[in-house]
């Protein structure tokens, strides 16, 4: 029905057929409905009504409120509910329709009928509509199947002994296959007859005989039989497949419990790979073989099915199990018979009956580890691989380098090669036509092709067939034969292989063209037997190789890692080819259209860096023998490093000039490197710009050669090699250095070099070489001796220089004399203690007062507290009271002692107190005794009498013990005589007379007589004598001793005598005067008139009180000593009355006790000073009242004076030093060194020439000399360079001990087994990848890595440059330099910068990138910077031309100005731009100028250094006098500044900037529309951009803007500052420490007529002079550079200044007067160029190829990465941290959206330190994503997340930065493409893809990048940005 005109347009999308199966599976019939209002009025109250004819279901109407004019809306459709009863009863299909009417109120706006085909219950609708619905007719639960299942079980038991239909439970594919076979046999036994199938059934469908109908009718079509077989398989649990090919159907089953990703599979390779032998995942069965009378066994049926699958008629396969997962269930059972349409079936071959199917033996790949063992060697090999499609290891094509073989049974072929069999290569059979030649290869021959039998037969006869005719084959083999031999000879590496097996792969899923990559590479050689027999091939007996280029490409581009191939699996002969193919197939079986094709190709397989790859691959063990290579592999230093760092200061003292050969002058940092290299050290030599790197390498090589070493110099770039080569030529070493940089060098050039060395004539060694060396060494030692002595630091930390400087800086006088012995033993620690003590003394006395005459002097407390102070105060007051009372009492006592005060002096106190005690204690003292004259003698007499008295008393007591007292008066003497007389008689008279005596004595006895009568009588006699003596001598005793004399109390009398004698002695001791003593004794005598007791009654209390007070005073004193630690003698003044002194002290202490705390501070510091032996300082300070404010200066000056005197006295040379004499020594040294450099060249040449053999005669034919002579004559005809080198292994090192090569030429020409070089030197190592360097390193014993890590890294165009994130720890860094640095390999640094003729030109780099470690030289005009910022008024044409024309015009104007000026044009010019667009603009503008003025072009380009115009990417290595910068980037027309600065934003941008800003020698002008303050570092994280901001600040405002290293360092006192101060007082304008680096001009006197210049520079012998390590540096290198810069220099010596400062000043003034002032050069003032308004040259883009170097177009912004906080939790916590992860997801999306699902997951996992996204993690993420409100889009199989739908709809920009291609949202790529086309309008699609890839940072495209760009292209088309016209893209 027609649509109502001009009302509505209705578009209904629906399925054109329905059937019962669709109803059973709830298939949606109505898919979409759109209604468009074609009118200009609003339609309302709309209702859509459906009518089904016939009524096969129900469908409700749809109300619509309103449809606006010209609006098209989508209608939400109701569900069409199909009637199961109606469809189940339907026996014939017919055409129905759906009637659709649209009402507005009652008006019909639209009506139409939509036809629909209603199928019967058992009818399938074909492939056009839902082909997977066929799986509904697989009915595994039908009862009719049970007999078949039972019979299959019986058959299975018959075969295996086990009837169980256990599907996959056994995990044995063979048992599953036998179950399939049993089903096959059981169905075959049913005798089912063929039935035809309708033509084109697969398109239109057919009636299906369900299983019950087939089994009951015994009839079925191929589809019926397939469904029956599939139903039986599913019934026993096997996953079944239905295969549809053109006009036919058959079935199959999975042998493993898997399914395809989709229910319908249309890629035949997904089946073909899985049915291949060795994989056997699937078995296909030709089900018509089960029909009656066929009698075909199961294996044959399988073979038939496999062949039909591969006959190119495949349509699709249906995976029934996968369909079940999608909800498609079997239709409900219904038994009904029907007829099917007939088709003509293929006639099937008959076979023998039912036999047991043969077993299959699939490879068990489960044991293969999924991990590939990645080694450092493998990583190097990968990096050398060429992953581009031009590499025939990835994209093999039939060319003259390849020969395709007709292939069959490749495993047998490989086994035969491994067994050493030879195969003859033959042309193709003459009666056979080649198969299709497509995509560069012949297609594999079909298994049914009869030629296959022939090929297999030929293989057994060791013959191989090709696709070429006989003539073609002959040419091809001849070419391969010759080429392979040449390659082997030239490169030492075989490149001829047989490729066994090809991987057919596609760059993207949408690619139509397959690529073929070899899998196995068998090394072979071609042998020509004879012209008749032709060529044969055989194995080279080398290992068969896996194509690692292929493996690496799969890993990088497709994330396919194939494990189990390292090492290759082997069988009995060679490798296991079938297993290898199975491993490959298993790894790529999910890749659409990919497959392994078992074909063989003989060919030359190589690539750009194959030689280096082969070198590493085949020589890995030999490479590891090198300690440096081994260290790189293991990531740690493998050799023992001597921790002692070489010090050239010591070398200068120890080494003679003849010990290190220096044909070119070298500074100390260079010499250190040369010395280390000569001593066999491995190290890194850091060579910043302008530090004499090539000069150092030249010296290093020369010295090594002189030492008899062989040197290999390696440089990647010829330019770097040429610089060193030219320097070697300049010192006459050219003949001995063989240059082989190119691996394609002409043989004639090599022979010319070798001939040159054979022409060398030996010369004699210069006679005076050694003598001159010794003279230099001797003079150098003398000069070093002075500077060492001057700056020798003594143990106390000062040198003589330091002491002199410090002494002169102090104005105070040296008041202290410090003993020399203290200086002798002084060390730093002690000196520190001194200083701290004195400083603290100053601090304390400033705070607490000067100690001079302090009131508390004498108090020496050890600690202080307020308690102590209170206690002291109390004690002092008490002591004060006692001392005053004592004074009173003592005064009273003096009246008794004749007016004499015996206690006046403290020294008499003890005697005084003893006197008092005697007076109080003596028993008796009479006036007569004390007043007696000659008292001493009298007392002695009295004492003698006492002795006799005591003896008398003793005898009396003894006698009276036995006798009465009367016996004392008997005449004992006569009785004794009688006794003795009797004893002389004889016995009896004796007895009688003695008895008489006894009787006489008995009358007195009171007890029995003693036996010894004689002793008794003698005692009595002695008693009578003593009695008589006493009576005679005791006169006046009673007056003397009173009653004691009467009582004969001898002890008391003796005591009195002693005390009186002591009293007398004490009085004499106290008074020291006899007369005074007599006066005192007389005074005492007068007081004793009444006796001692009366004396005591009157005066005893006074005496006692005085004694008590004395005791109290002593107690007070002790307490004061205890509390205040006073000196005990302090209160005892020998010469003054102590009591009075004590009273004064105590009064002072009592009145000032509140100052005790301050006094304690003084006491503390005094003790500290005394402890450090400086007590004399404190004493003198206190005693002399030295001003505290000057104390420290006085001390320091005294100290420095003592130090100076100590040092000078110990060194005669210092005392005798004269500057004039030393200056003469310097000049003499310069002359000697200049002469010696020439002698060195002569000696070096003579030494090397002496090693050469004689070439003047003809040598033996086979000798190495003879071989070389012969090859020189015939120009090495017929022999390769490598072969020649191998033939003269001993001669070559003697001829050319130095070889200059590139890494690839090393691998090509130098055999790894050859004798090792002693030293390998790498130049520009920062630009050499490690994998290229290791081969050269391994050729040497030691290596020196020369480079600058602050300059640009390697540029890789063709090598693999991806990062293996799974093995990141094995990844190399950017260069060999970086890797060696990471090893912590020892480093040497070149420190002296010579290039810049003005220090400001290198100041920025030195500060920003080299931590101010470079030593740079200031120039005489150093006051004004030569880095000038030229502000240009213009704008950056962002988004259009990307040019800055104002800057370009200003630069061109400046170039013209300079070239037109006679003076300025002498300086060379270079222009550096920040983009290639700006570079091209300037070039074009200059070209126009050159056209108008050809003379300018000649001036610019014909000079020694022509003008260059380069950008940041290619300026490294160039330098010019004047550098003009064009920043280019800046504010656009609106004044907005983008933070995208092209190359600077990239990683390593700061290196590019460093290179660019260090190219100028004399001046640098920065032309910029951009100011530093316009760069906002908050908007970019680029290190390069931050550097640019600081560089612009430096150019705008000068050096002070730099944060210079060491700025916080204190300014040290130097002799130069002292001299400068003196000069300023004379009226000169003087600057000190001139220079921005650590090297300084000590003093500069400014030229008063040219204030930007210095008139005179003064160099002193201070710290800078001493820090210079060598005499050569101090007196030659530095001075020559300063002279070259234009300095006038005057030398000042410290000791001259110390001795006579005025004389030194006169010398300086004389030097000033003699200085010839340089005329002031007034350059024409520079004025910025203002571009003319009238004319502006519009510059087009420079070309598509430059796009990568241009600024990213206007909407591009840097890609900003979300920074997530690291999560320090166990990884398992990830699964339980839902809220945290959702937060992290939101953080990432907010920062980085749109973002790919893959990258979003990586970001979150990275915060958790999880490296891989496994299945469990993936499922977790999927659940989390569902819980977010993020907007998701999809493209192909990739998902992308957006913040919300609004962001997606309004996203118009794109971001540059590091992302993988798969992570780029198509919409973002589309935006980039649109921006590109806004400029280009229309370009080829391939160019658009390439440019878009470059915008996103992909320098080259590949399959993955191409796929991403194509997704973007599709998105751009969908968004109506662009349209495609043929092969071009055009903007809409």
Give an account of the 3D structure.
By secondary structure, the protein is an alpha/beta fold. The chain is built from 70 helices and 53 strands. Strands 20, 21, 24, 25, 26, 27, 28 and 29 form an eight-stranded mixed beta sheet that branches. β40, α57 (1549-1556) and β41 (1560-1568) form a beta-alpha-beta unit. α26 packs antiparallel against α44, α29 packs antiparallel against α41 (1138-1152) and α30 packs antiparallel against α38 (1050-1071). The longest helix is centred in the middle third of the chain and has 33 residues, at 1092-1124. The radius of gyration is 59 Å and the shape is elongated. It starts with 7 loop residues before the first strand and ends with a strand. The relative contact order is 0.06.
Mean pLDDT: 83
Largest sheet features: 8 strands, mixed
Number of strands: 53
Structural class: alpha/beta
Radius of gyration: 59 Å
Large-scale geometry: elongated
Strand content: 5-15%
Helix content: 40-55%
Task: Give the terminus-to-terminus CA distance.
Answer: 38 Å
- Give the number of helices: 70
Poorly predicted runs are 336-353, 1356-1361, 1603-1610, 1717-1755
